[in-house]
Request: fold
Amino acid sequence: MQPEDYPFEDVLFGSYKLTDWRPDLITELLGYLRPDNVRVSVVGKKFKALADKKEEWYGTEYKLEKIEPSVIERWSDGSLNSKLHLPDKNEFIPSDFDLAPRDESHKFPIIIQENDFCRAWYKQDDEYFLPKANLRFEFLSPLAYQDPLNCNLTYMFVILFKDALLEYAYAAQLAGLRWELTNTKYGMVLGIGGYNHKQKVFLEKIMDKMVKFEVDPKRFDILKETYIRTLKNFDSEQPYQHVNYYVSVLLSEHSWTKTELLDATEQLNVEVLREFIKKLLSKMHVESFVHGNVNKAGSLEHVSTVMDRLRDSVGL
Reply:
């Protein structure tokens, strides 16, 4: 399809424009969705012994069975399932796309708050003028990379936290927000970008979850196993990859090797991680940078959202 094939007002939907409203066709289609008019495909290795036919072209083994009338009858008498419903309202969908009130313009970011616990940088967008902003918070702690075990613990905290936040993150992504949390030698870095209207709501959700985070033992075991496998797979990489890695290690002022990290995973367990998270969050210094469609007052609100929750979590 080429844009010139359609009038300007029809370019977005092209040949998919519906010209007639036919509710009778919708009703007719729904009428075919009945238990007695269904074909069910069940796929799995455990059914291999039951297969009695083989597909001509690909040799796929299969078996055909009629659905018992009693099953059809049971399906026909089924009641509504409360778990099947429309999704809840997405609280991250923006509705305010106005530009923030203008502050005095600065060519470079400026420090708007500095104390023993945090230092906040800020720059209001004066180039693109879009209803978007970028928030970055670096959580600094000497504990994060103190030894190979602490490095592993910080990594496990980050991946478990991201795993637990998937529900919120998906809704936020649909609403034009993106986020990332990564572990570094100095601690963790949290980044949020996209439409600025609901960023504060999203940041509050993230921080509430972070300071009240509970380790799920099942997810811990699964993600720990994946992490260990990743460390072990390093030995299977190409020699040039090993060269690049070890050159990086040698040139780093402070770096734990994958062998050291792998050895330290033997001490990695749920209880150790729980205690580590408490200590990590209690010894944080936050360096932040807010840039975009946010003025100074709005930037300080974001900083307060983070700092207030960290202080509350340690009783300050």
User: Anything to note?
Assistant: Residues 215 and 274 are 7 Å apart (CA to CA). Strands lie at 53-54, 61-62, 110-114, 118-124, 132-140, 177-184, 187-195, 285-292. Residues 110-314 form a domain with the Cytochrome Bc1 Complex; Chain A, domain 1 fold (CATH 3.30.830.10).
